[in-house]
Design goal:
CATH class of the largest domain: Alpha Beta
Radius of gyration: 23 Å
Helix content: 25-40%
Distance between the termini: 41 Å
Largest sheet: 7 strands, mixed
CATH superfamily of the largest domain: Type I PLP-dependent aspartate aminotransferase-like (Major domain)
CATH architecture of the largest domain: 3-Layer(aba) Sandwich
Number of helices: 15
CATH topology of the largest domain: Aspartate Aminotransferase, domain 2
Strand content: 5-15%
Oligomer: single chain
Number of strands: 17
Structural class: alpha/beta
Number of domains: 2
Strand order of the largest sheet: 4-12-11-10-7-5-6
Length: 472
């Protein structure tokens, strides 16, 4: 029995399209009403989650879409997953929701077990965890850990703060509040809070009007595709970008304490880089004493054919910090060096220190993925999907440019010739019962669940072929 059939015996066999004007009339009414109390302008359609099932999301107009967007890449196992529903009913979950403990001061007796369940799927080389509330929060917490570690290396891990440090930090001045930087990459996305927005560089809308830290942006490799035909060019591109990174670290006006990078730049266009590039970054950060942070918020939890995408690169030694959220339904960062635990308590701290309810759900998600070998299944399905798209690319090269993600399971993307064409393409997919997302200006990105199977691929590809056949 397939995993989709096991979980979802009543999953629809095909998309259902009752209203082709999307959002439909019921959605429009709901959006207008919602808009009186909430900013509903970004809404594509209003979903009916009671009727959504498996790999299909329903809307209030009766449309049922094959979903390759999965709540902006944050649903691991599909809609109304029975195993997760059972986890949600557990006494452990009820306590976590109703009591919502302040974990730093009053952890429950079950917290250690909850965390150990998560550590079973920690990235290779990582054996500690710190929890947060969202992907952006996870990255900001990682920056705090990096800055405190960096200063601790200069001061001495257990060395007390000076009177000058104590006094100056209360005025937001050095040396207590030092001028330090985090290097990130052009086209990156790491969140919409203040520090995370400062390292984001994919779209102005994410950060315009926000005061920001004056932190540097390096070049992320811009490869030519197909990779096999452009190996020399792409190798030179790696070298060029690594040189830029090292030059920034050596010459920036304030010390660079940390570097943050996504294994695949997701919001910025699904931009890939090689294992050699990532190992080069690790070598540079070690050489200059810079904390190496890998942002696995969107890439993590199996979608690339490895539980954590950076594991494809076999980075040695492992990254210092690895952030997570989205498909894990929880958030935080992994680490392995105990010195990333601040020497004094209450430094990395807040009221809740994460959310045990979301951690319980993350543990249940991890168990289902491991027990059902869903990472390997995603890789098999992704290879099948990529092959089908290569066939369409040969037929429609203008509308399937720079196809990428080969060998990365279902983490696949391509470009259209313009933003207008990309947006029109995504809208037509919806009109034909497929919910799909874009990124950057001209890219289409695929983010199905880990229960997406070859039968779903065939439906998706047939819809894509139908749309492209009359796409002008």
């Amino acid at each position: 029995m397939s995993i989709a059939a096991k979980y979802y015996p009543n999953e629809p066999e095909q998309p259902v399209v009752k209203v082709t004007q999307i959002p439909g009339p019921e959605s429009k009414k709901a959006i207008e009403s919602l808009g009186k109390v909430f900013d509903s302008r970004p809404v594509y359609f209003v979903a009916d989650y009671e009727k959504s099932n498996g790999n299909y999301i329903a809307d209030v107009d009766g449309n049922v879409y094959l979903d390759l967007y999965a709540q902006i890449a944050s649903i691991a196992l599909g809609y109304n997953n029975p195993a997760l529903i059972e986890a949600a009913k557990s006494p452990e979950m009820i306590r976590a929701i109703v009591e919502r403990p302040a974990l730093g001061n009053f952890p429950g007796k079950d917290l250690e077990g909850i965390l150990k369940n998560l550590l079973k799927v920690a990235p290779k080389g990582q054996d500690h965890i710190w929890s947060g509330l969202s992907g952006a929060d996870a990255n900001e917490l990682a920056f705090k850990a990096a800055f405190m570690w960096y200063q601790g290396q200069k001061r001495g891990y257990n060395t007390a703060w000076t009177a000058e440090e104590n006094e100056s930090t209360m005025k937001n001045q050095a040396p207590g509040s030092p001028d330090l930087a985090v290097i990130s990459f052009k086209r990156a996305f790491h969140g919409r809070l203040f520090a995370s927005a400062s390292v984001t560089a994919s779209k102005p809308v994410h950060k315009i009007d926000l005061p920001s830290f004056k932190w540097p942006k390096a070049e992320f490799p811009a490869y030519k595709y197909p990779l096999e035909a452009n190996a020399e060019y792409n190798k030179a591109e790696d070298a060029r970008c690594l040189e830029i990174v090292e030059n920034i670290i050596k010459t920036w006006q304030v010390p660079v304490a940390a570097l943050i990078i996504e294994p695949v730049q997701s919001e910025g266009g699904d931009n890939h880089a090689s294992a050699e590039f990532f190992q080069g970054l690790r070598d540079v950060t070690l050489k200059h004493g810079v904390v190496f942070i890998v942002d696995e918020v969107q890439t993590g939890v199996g979608a690339t054919g490895s539980f954590w995408a950076h594991e494809h690169f076999n980075i040695t030694p492992p990254p210092d910090l690895v952030t997570f959220s989205k498909k894990f339904q929880s958030a935080g960062y992994w680490f392995h060096n105990p010195e990333f635990i601040p020497a004094a308590p209450y430094r990395q701290f807040n009221t809740w220190c994460g959310d045990p309810a979301r951690m319980i759900l993350a543990g249940a998600i991890a168990k289902e993925i491991v027990d059902n070998d869903l990472v390997s299944k995603a890789k098999e399905v992704g290879d099948y999907l990529y092959g089908k798209l290569e066939e369409l690319q040969a037929k429609y090269p203008r509308h399937l440019q720079n196809l990428r993600g080969k060998g990365r399971a279902t983490f696949i993307a391509w470009d259209l010739e313009s933003a207008e064409k990309r947006n029109e393409f995504l809208y037509r997919l919806k009109q034909n019962g497929v919910n799909c997302g874009g990124c950057a200006e001209v890219s289409v990105r695929l983010r199905p669940t880990l229960t997406f199977e070859k039968k779903h691929v065939d439906i998706f590809v047939s819809v894509v072929a139908k749309v492209l056949a009359d796409f002008v």
